[in-house]
Amino acid sequence: MSDTQSAPHPEKLNYRTVQFLTSAPTLAECPPDNGAEVAFAGRSNAGKSSAINALTGNSKLARTSKTPGRTQLINFFSVSDQQRLVDLPGYGYAKVARSMKDEWQRHLAFYLEKRQCLRGLVLLMDIRQPLKEFDLHMLTWAVESGLPAHILLTKADKLKNGPANNTRFAVEKALKEQGLDTGVTVQIFSSTKKTGLDKLERKLNAWLALEQ
Ligand SMILES: Nc1nc2c(ncn2[C@@H]2O[C@H](COP(=O)(O)OP(=O)(O)OP(=O)(O)O)[C@@H](O)[C@H]2O)c(=O)[nH]1
Ligand SMILES: [Mg+2]
């Protein structure tokens, strides 16, 4: 898969000192649109908040839950005063009222389309259920918008190495076949076992580099 254009040796950022910045219910309430930002998106329960916690080594930073739909606001975390991680509300949560669902998706779409400082999208999918309808929708949007995307096949601890790798190959193949592989990379990930954390960090370092 083609990798994204980025500085050859981007600065290694320290994710251990990441702090919660703010929660925004709408685009208007997001922090100033400057510097560089990477958003974590994915279906409800895919493990977005857990991935941010694993990355930062802070299990209490982003709220996780067994109840899907825990993250309902756009949550911002600062890596530095010019670099942020964003925990987006999960999509596909069936138990909230239709009107509320539409409302979130509207804000999500607004954020994705209007945010100038957005450098890349980390798209999380449960390795046991990859490439669902909304994942494809997000990827299509990212590819068409020229926004690089990095797929985390999460909860890889639920599978043995062989099946996990086979899923990764199958996902890469499916993306290629659907013309969704431009600027898109795929990796295996587990927040519980910390699998693939170094790879994710390298991707974030490249995307968040300020001299791009
Ligand atoms: N086994 C395993 N469970 C995980 C992993 N990552 C997350 N989980 C579990 O999956 C559930 C959902 O995780 P969250 O991180 O809250 O998911 P989310 O994508 O932020 O969900 P929403 O905020 O609802 O969109 C929790 O019960 C987590 O403990 C993982 O790597 N392995
Ligand atoms: Mg969450």
What key phrases describe this protein's structure?
212 residues, seven-stranded mixed sheet, binds guanosine-5'-triphosphate, Rossmann fold, single chain, alpha/beta, metal-binding, binds magnesium ion, Probable GTP-binding protein EngB
Distance between the termini: 21 Å
User: What helical percentage do the residues reach?
Assistant: 25-40%
Q: CATH H level: which superfamily? A: P-loop containing nucleotide triphosphate hydrolases
Let me know the largest β-sheet.
Answer: 7 strands, mixed
Contiguous uncertain segments of 5+ residues: none
Q: Assign an overall shape.
A: globular
Query: Which CATH class is shown?
Result: Alpha Beta
Order of strands in the sheet with most strands? 1-3-4-2-5-6-7
- Bound heterogens, unique: guanosine-5'-triphosphate, magnesium ion
CATH topology assignment: Rossmann fold
What structural category characterises the helix and strand content? alpha/beta
Report the mean per-residue pLDDT as an integer: 88
Structural Rg:
16 Å
Count the beta strands.
Answer: 7
CATH architecture group name? 3-Layer(aba) Sandwich
Please report the number of helical segments.
5
GO molecular function, one term: GTP binding
Protein name: Probable GTP-binding protein EngB
Family: Belongs to the TRAFAC class TrmE-Era-EngA-EngB-Septin-like GTPase superfamily. EngB GTPase family.
Organism: Microbulbifer marinus
